Amino acid sequence: MKIIAAFEKTKEISYTSHLDVQRTLQRAFRRANLPLAFSKGFNPHPKLSFATALATGYTSAGEWLEVELEREITPEAFIERVNAVLPKGMRFVTAFVGDESIDTLSKMLVAAKYIITLYTDAPVGTEALRAAVGTILASDEVIVEKKTKSGVKPANIRPEILEAEAVSASDRTAVVAVVGTLNAAGGLRAETFARALFERLNLNGRFTAHRTALLFTGSDRLPRLG
Length: 226
Prior knowledge:
This protein has helices at residues 18-31, 75-83, 105-108, 126-138, 190-201, and strands at 2-9, 48-50, 59-68, 90-98, 109-120, 143-148, 151-156, 161-170, 173-183, 186-187, 205-216. By secondary structure, the protein is of the alpha+beta class. The protein folds into two domains: 2-100, Alpha-Beta Plaits (2-Layer Sandwich), CATH 3.30.70; 108-216, Alpha-Beta Plaits (2-Layer Sandwich). Strands 1, 2, 3, 4, 5, 8, 9, 10 and 11 form a nine-stranded mixed β-sheet that branches. A two-stranded antiparallel ribbon has the order 6-7.
């Protein structure tokens, strides 16, 4: 059987890498005595896969994964047993049994929602924030320096931005809600959107990113775009 589940990653472990998150979950599944299904071959490993990785330093309200088990277990028992052995900062929030009609999570993934908080080096007002976000949405091109496998290159991230909204601005803190494309080939990074916003505000600073949802197509059991 296959369990499809979502877990949250909070600030206590925000700088834990995706690889270490994977290792932590594998250890937790073993401590919870789950009947894991393993791959065949010289180096068998649990049949566990993620919809996508979460960038180091980000937090999330729901990162989705799928894990295959040798025997049946209820989603409620899965959550209870695994949460009992997970470290602080990680907790499963929902789970269901996947059927054969559901494709892999990575193939169904289409977008993600973020809350991006800017901590600026000078005060920013609500109207200035709204104007900066509006400028981004009204533009045909939003060019930023983007890291690629062949180095840092200018890239147009505007096609990756589906929605953006100024949430609040107070003194030197500005909050924006963003929906961006995300799939196996890539998509919008909160980092690049934050950089574009800093440029249009003509300010410097740092940012934090919280992924509030991954959005899918192909299943009504998963969060959907639109």
